[in-house]
Amino acid sequence: MANRKKQDPDNKRLAKAKSLLLKLRKKNNASNPLRDSKNTPIVFTLDDVQAVLANKQANKQADKPVIVQAALANKIVQAKPEKQRTLQAVSVSDILGFNIANRKKVKSLREMEKVSPRFKPYFDILVALEKKVQGEIEEHAHDTLKHTDASGETAGNDMLNKDADSYDLDFALGIVTSEKLLLDEIEQAIDRIFDGSYGICEVTGKPIPKERLLAVPFTRCSLEGQKEQERKNAALRKKPVDEGVFTRDDDDDDIPLTYTEEESDL
């Protein structure tokens, strides 16, 4: 009997502990909806995972400020169409290397009142020659331009026609070049009238005879000076190699363009 009384308090304490443990478990199960009384494990399906990811992506987009999106929109640059390069046709000025219309304007600024009376006859001849040569240059330049256009149109012709066209073009260009040099000499002679050096031989320094000026009004030297210059040029050509056939004297930098009365058709 004594042993039975001693066990009863122990049994009561054990029963009380079990009761408290059961209450604690029920409380934990009630606070966690994902657990049930049977300790069922938590299971996620594929739809649940996709829903969670979509929710996170939506939250990220909502967090971005509107200013950033506007800045990205401004960075869109429309592609501009590339400008097509157009090749312009060759003009008369391109062939001559200068605009003859502008050249006429510059020369027309000369004041005829400043021409010395003793140079007036030569001035009139030079001005008439200047206009004539300018007209011939324009005419031949237009002919050269026609040859240039024709050479592109006859690309399918045979080699003989191409060679003939090339020869005609070279010949026309040669004429234009010669006339341009002549025009330069005429204009420089007119300039010498205004600076007072007209009619003085550039080789001998002596006056050029009136007869020669009337025959070749743009000449730079007298007949005597021309012959002297020709002798100098011949001596330079006959120099042996060891004496420097390729050397030049200081006077050779400005060799005048000379004509004889017999060679001039003016």
Provide a descriptive summary of the structure in words.
The protein has helices at residues 2-31, 46-63, 66-74, 92-96, 100-107, 120-153, 159-195, 210-215, 223-238. With 266 residues, the chain is mostly helical. Helix 6 runs antiparallel to helix 7. The model has no long low-confidence stretch (mean pLDDT 68).
Structure characteristics:
266 residues; mainly alpha; Four Helix Bundle (Hemerythrin (Met), subunit A); 9 helices; rod-shaped
Tell me the radius of gyration: 54 Å
Helix segment tally: 9
Strand content: under 5%
Let me know the CATH homologous superfamily of the domain at 92-254: DksA, coiled-coil domain
**CATH C-level label of the domain at 92-254:** Mainly Alpha
Order of helices and strands: HHHHHHHHH
Low-confidence stretches: none
Described by strand count, sense and barrel closure, the largest sheet is: none
CATH architecture of the domain at 92-254: Up-down Bundle
Number of separate strands: 0
Any idea of the CATH topology of the domain at 92-254?
Four Helix Bundle (Hemerythrin (Met), subunit A)
Q: What would you call the structural class?
A: mainly alpha
Give the overall shape, derived from the CA principal axes: rod-shaped
Compute the separation of the termini in Å: 170 Å
